[in-house]
Amino acid sequence: MKTPGPTHTRRRFWVDPRFVIGLVLVAASITGVGAIVAGSDRTTAVYTARSTLTVGDELTATDLVETRVQLGAAAELYLVPAADLKSGLLVTQTILAGELVPRSAVGKSSGSDVTSVVVDVPGRLAASIAAGSVVDIWSARATGPSEYAPPTILVGQASVVRIIEPTGIIAAENGRSVEILVPKANVGAVLEAIMNGDALAVVPVNTPVGP
């Protein structure tokens, strides 16, 4: 008579429910963090000026840097990469280095709207005035020998093209010549002031005032 061999009992696999719940919570946490990170990246690629751009400059890719910033609904007001950068675009208002490029600051018609004139300014210029600065041209009409009427703004919001430094033995205190872009409608008034010997001054716009 055979003696029965040992009976093999199949072991049942048991999983602690707390372990399953923990795995679910970890997976949900990872998914949630990913969604938060993706949702928080609401930046938009726009162009900033690599260097100061002045009125009349032709805009090229080398003048611009692609930058991602948070603008929200205001993003449509600025020049963005891709098809926006077309050949023949001109700068219609000064854009300082590092500034975002507004769509309103570029166009195709600036060359027909403004022209440059050279204004001789006695004395020193403000230290903040340089190529690309936005300035007001003030004029005091000559009424007699060394006599002038109260100064008024001759041209507002003009753009400086360059500062022409004096050469030779002319001292810096004797003044500077400044090439400025002005609307063609104002050219006659500027030339009249120059020919009349009026006192002219170039004043920077929106210069920060110290305490």
Give an overview in words.
- The chain has 211 residues and is of the alpha+beta class.
- The protein folds into 2 domains: 44-107, Alpha-Beta Complex (Type Iii Antifreeze Protein Isoform Hplc 12); 113-204.
- It contains 3 helices and 11 strands.
- The strands form 4 sheets. It has a 5-stranded antiparallel beta sheet. A two-stranded antiparallel ribbon has the order 1-2.
- A hairpin with a 2-residue loop joins strand 7 and strand 8.
- The termini are far apart.
- The mean pLDDT is 77.
Helix content: 10-25%
Main sheet overview: 5 strands, antiparallel
Please count the helical segments: 3
- Computed structural class: alpha+beta
Order of helices and strands: HEEEEHEEEEEEHE
